[in-house]
Amino acid sequence: ETGVTQSPTHLIKTRGQQVTLRCSSQSGHNTVSWYQQALGQGPQFIFQYYREEENGRGNFPPRFSGLQFPNYSSELNVNALELDDSALYLCASSNQRGPYEQYFGPGTRLTVT
Amino acid sequence: QQQVKQSPQSLIVQKGGISIINCAYENTAFDYFPWYQQFPGKGPALLIAIRPDVSEKKEGRFTISFNKSAKQFSLHIMDSQPGDSATYFCAASTMDSSYKLIFGSGTRLLVRP
User: Fold this and answer.
1) Could you give the CA distance from residue A40 to residue B105 in angstroms, rounded to a whole number?
2) Is A56 in Cβ contact with B99 (below 8 Å)?
3) Taking CA A1 as the corner, what is the angle to CA A29 and CA A57, rounded to the nearest 5 degrees?
4) Strand, helix or coil at A39?
5) Rounded Cα gap, residues B106 and B9, in angstroms
6) Which residue of A has its CA nearest to B88?
7) What are the tens digits of pLDDT across the range A42-100?
8) Using CA atoms, how far apart are residues A90 and A93, in angstroms rounded to an integer?
9) What is the pLDDT of residues B50-89, one digit of tens each?
10) Are A37 and A90 in contact, with CB atoms under 8 Å apart?
């Protein structure tokens, strides 16, 4: 059984640029959630995708958008990057809608300069 | 109302001792309370979770105690080992909160040999 994988591992972008982060869910999982984890903080929920539809969203502006593909992999897109977007971005997959039994990937460390 | 308050911020325990981490919440609609363990450079890993219809759940050396009337729950790690040294996060959620899993701020545990 393959776990959750994310790419890239690290990324450095300049303020104002756009970024796309990718996540492959664990085998058999149809739900993907994205979280932002600032240094020394707990993860904050961005949104969840279930069977290619957005299933819930946290308090993040519209410049944070996502996509889920038929194979249940997912992308997180962030436009007009700001310095405060520097964080670890985590993807979690599960086999049901909602917050239950979420399995996290290792994350993508984004640095905005 | 959506917050989960976690304490202590850091904890040092001797090998073989009991580690106790506490969390408190306000939203009585929360119905799912997981604990996650995170090692440096890794994503959070689900340790154990509880629903409010039980007061205690044990899995190996890890026990969740849940006090519904006090709106508190805690993680006990029995016979703590140096390999348990990590950051622990409590979290809470309800199906009414757009599937949002709300994390505490984390407790950095160090188990001394």
Assistant:
1) 8
2) yes
3) 25
4) coil
5) 6
6) A42
7) 999 999 998 899 888 889 999 999 999 999 999 999 999 999 999 999 999 988 777 78
8) 10
9) 988 899 999 999 999 999 999 999 999 999 999 999 999 9
10) yes
Residue type, A10: H
For chain B, what percent of residues have pLDDT higher than 70? Answer: 94
Residue A78 burial (C-beta neighbours within 10 Å; 0-12, 13-18, 19+): buried
8 Å CB contact of B91 and A107: no
Name which of B20, B13, B25, B17 is nearest B101 in CA terms: B25
Mean pLDDT, chain B, integer: 92
Q: Which residues of B touch A108 (CB under 8 A)?
A: none
> Which A residues, 38 through 77, put their C-beta within 8 Å of a C-beta on chain B?
40-45, 48, 55-58
* Predicted pLDDT at A84: 96
Q: Which two tokens stand for residue B103?
A: 């994390």
Q: Do B46 and A102 touch (CB under 8 A)?
A: yes
Closest-CA residue of B relative to A59 is B100
Query: Using the beta-carbon criterion (under 8 Å), do B101 and A33 form an inter-chain contact?
Result: yes
